[in-house]
Each structure stands twice: as structure tokens, then as C-alpha cells.
Amino acid sequence: MTHQEIREKFRKFMGSKGHKWVASSSLLPSDPSVLFTTAGMQQFKQYYTDPSSAPAANVASIQKCMRTSDIDEVGDESHLTFFEMLGNFSFNGYWKREATQYAHEFIIKEMGLKIDHVSIFGGEGDIPADEESEKIWREIAPEIVIKKFGRADNFWGPTGNEGPCGPTTEIYVNGIEVWNLVFNQCYKHPDGRLEALESPGVDTGMGLERLAMAVQKKENVFGTDLFEPLIQMLPQDNISKKVHRIIADHARAAAFIISDGVTPSNKDKGYVLRRLIRRIIVQCHLNGIEIEAMNDIFAKIVELYSQYYPELDISKIKSIFAVENEKFQKTFKNGLKELEKMGSVDNASAFKLYESFGLPFDVIQEVGGSKASSLTRNGFEEERKRHQEISRAGVEKKFGGHGMKEGDLTAANKEELWKKTRLHTATHIIVAALERVLGQKLPQAGSDIMAERLRFDFTFPRKVTLEELKKAENIANDIVAKDLPVICEEMDLQVALDSGASAFFKLKYPPRVKVYSIGESGAYFSRELCGGPHVSRTGQVGHITITKEESVSGGNRRIRAVVN
Ligand code: SER
């Protein structure tokens, strides 16, 4: 049975039991307390407390999901970052009996599988055992072995720091859990308190990859038709299964989250994407796999899935991967050399390698081998936090907690300074973008940055059209998306001017100046004489919107813009 047939059977089966089919939601959830969509129920969360707002009492879906806590484990037989979940849900509709019956019937009759055993909630603390589920299983399948566990195993949820939750019953086939049936009968408040839900709800989730593995009688998920076609495209000789799996898993995940709108950065979702892409790049390098092979893998992924996920965008996937590759190729090889030279690697030196060369933690651990044996993910993350605190404390100390001045900017506090710093870099980006659109250097005539907006004047003989502004804005946001480095160098004024750096023609400059460049050396997007401060990468600027263009005195034009 192919994965296509499994999907179809599930859809038909749930339809025949009165479920309305709902499309998968984005991997980027509206629930801000979670980074990615991790379960099918996430898009339905509010219906458990407000069933009347649901599109139907009973719904079913196949949901794309991302779980990133085990990213370093990918490469063994079972861990995945991206996966799909088949699920049926009820909001004050049916309850434990129907949910259990449907699951049993689907596994036995539709999938032709045998159930090894099921587990149920055996009670813990104040929460009583789920006797109802035990009774239902005894009636439906008297021969079945029922195992009982506590809260860690058989009580689910909530996603985020509050929400519906309740006891579960899990179905095991060939030794692995394939289906998790959650009976949402409680609501967990942020303080941990459990309250009974007014109306009960059902939330079930069955991993497509695991189900396919059982149905297709494979030893692990990587043998199924969801992975095999991808792995087959990679060179087979002298390359471990682990490497195949990492590349296949990370390529799927990257393709899906890029298509949902994530770009690589050093924060949150962007950081996850960056880790995935960089791990692919390093694995390709270490195993002599041509990086171009990834384009074919991405194309295959889109071919496999586009029927179900039309949002998959091959050109976006390829271009974001190419940009990150371009950026990373330059530095990581130096990082690997540096790592080779080092005697032993502890968490602090690993973090330095990450900061200076972009080497991901797991790569340092893997390539470092025995000399990196003291590394831990937690220790590394601690270093990261410590480092962030030091830079923050540095700003505070410098400005004594009162009004602060740094370079060309003054601000009331460090939040404001940061906002103005972002706007300051945005000013450089917009000027350079406009110069490209208008096809000439723009003599700058003044700049004024407030916390809520930037403003700058330049000499130009006519109105800049809306279309030109839009083009410039697009270029500017492209530069933000590329997360280019912003580099500061000190040099002699004449050297700076000779190197093509822009300057305010009215200003008198000292003999030594600071030059801020955006982009890689040799291919600068912008290069200006400036007192700073600026962000260190363009991704930190955020989305740029040009809000106004007008004429001001002296034959100058004035632009205002905001960042979000
Ligand atoms: N929410 C449960 C899970 O993710 C069942 O769908 O396992």
C-alpha cells in the first residue's frame, strides 16, 4: 500500500464516519507559545473550550508537523523533525467509545494490521485512572493486552503553557506506538491547575511515516515510500545510513518550512531552518556529495508532496538554500580547519566556533569526535545565553541606565537604542536600494531617526514614483531576508572615499573614519562612512516599509520608513 493509498483510505474512512475533512494548517502556528505546529489539534485548540465555533463537531485532517527538540538525534532509526499526522477530532461530538472503535476498525480492517497491545492511563496523584477506556477496550477487543501507565506516558498536553489536555490510550503495532487517542476532559491553566472541561473533546494523532512503516513492512521509517525515493537519489557507496537519513529528513523539513515563509536567521524559526540547512551542507561536504544534488532532492520532495501541499515552492526553496549555502561555504571550511587545530573542545570554545564560523553545535560534536566529548547541547545553549547577557550588560554599563548616546544615535533606554540601531541600518539599506532603482548615486542631505521611524533627505531632481519606491522596498527586504553581515572597519578618510564609500557631502570628516559595509567583501550592497551603531546582520532589521516620499527645500527629496 502506497502512502497515497493510506491517505486516501483514511480520508474515506473518516468521511464515512461523519467527519468533515479539514486541510492541514501552516507549520507556523497562530499560538505564539509554540515555535512550530507540532500536532494536528493545534489549529483546533480553541474548539475544545468553545465547540460552537468549530466548523463541524467532528473533523479529520492530515497535518504537517515539526518537532525540533530531538534535532540532534535525527540519523537513528526513528527520529524525524518533519512528519505528517493523520487525526480525527471531536468537539463535544462523540466520545471515548466511538473514538476507540474507529481507531480499532481502521487499523485492523483498513490497514490490515495486528495490534500488539494498547496502553491506557492508570491514574496518578489526584487524577483517577481511565477505567472507561479499559472497559471499552475489553468490549471491543477482549483478547487485547492492556498496559497501564502514569502521567508521563498516558496523559497528553497541553501544547504551549495552557490548554486542553487529558488521558490517552495508545495503540501499538509491531512494538511501536502508531496511534495516540487523547480524551480532552481537562483544561490546564498556566499555573498548572487542572479544571474539568465543560464539554469533552477527542484529539487523535497517528504519524503517517510510522503507519507506512508498519503497513509497508519496513524496518524503519526510512524504508518507506516517503523516504526511499529521496535516499535513492544520494550516492550509496561509502556513505552511512545516518548521513542519508539526516539529509533526507532535513531536506523535507527545510522545504516545508521555507514554503511556509521562514528564512534562515539566528533566532527562533529562522535559527531552526539555518541549523537544518547548515547540517545538510556540512554532511554533503564531509561525504563528498555535490551540493547541487540537493536541488534534485528538493525537486523530488515537491513532486512527492505538491498534490497535498500546493504551497511547496521549488524556486523559493532552491534560492533560499543557495543563498544560505553561498554565505556558509565561505566560513565553515575555515571553521573546520580551526576545529582540527584545537586540542580539545569545550562548550565555550564550541560556542566561539559557532559565533565566528557558523559551525553548528552538532557538526562540532560530530567532527570533533573524542576531543569534543565534553560538549553538551545544554552547556552550549548556556554559553549562548551568557553571551547574550554580556552584550546586553555591556550596553547598560556604558550608558549607566540613563539617556544613552552611541555613535550617531541617542536613545532613552536600551530598547529604544536597539530600535534606532535597526532603523539606522535600514536607512543605509534603503539608500543603496534606491540608488540601484534610480541608477545613480544619491547625495545624502540629512538623516533623522526616531524610535518609530527613519527619515532621510537626498538630492534628486524629481518625484520618485510609487513603482520605484516599491521596487526599492522589495530590494531592501530582499537584503534583510538574505541576512547579510554588516561590517565596520576603521580607515583613512581618503582610502574610504577611494573604495567607493558614500559620504554626506556637506559634512567635514576626520582623517580616520569608520566605514560600514553591508554584504560580503568584494560584493558590497552598501558602503558608507558612518559613526554607527548598526546591527550585525541585516536579518535583525526586520521588515522595511517605505511610508512616504515628498519634496523638501533645497531641491531635496525626503523619505520616511518604518521597520517591523
Ligand atoms: N495531540 C496528540 C499527539 O500529538 C494526538 O493527536 O500525539
TrEMBL record:
Transmembrane segments: none annotated. Gene3D superfamilies: 3.30.54.20, Bira Bifunctional Protein, Domain 2, Threonyl-trna Synthetase, Chain A, domain 2. It comes from the Bacteria. GO terms for molecular function: alanine-tRNA ligase activity; aminoacyl-tRNA deacylase activity; ATP binding; tRNA binding. Pfam families: tRNA-synt_2c, tRNA_SAD. Its EC number is 6.1.1.7. PANTHER family: ALANINE--TRNA LIGASE, CYTOPLASMIC, ALANYL-TRNA SYNTHETASE. Belongs to the class-II aminoacyl-tRNA synthetase family. This is alanine--tRNA ligase. It comes from Candidatus Yanofskybacteria bacterium RIFCSPLOWO2_01_FULL_49_17.
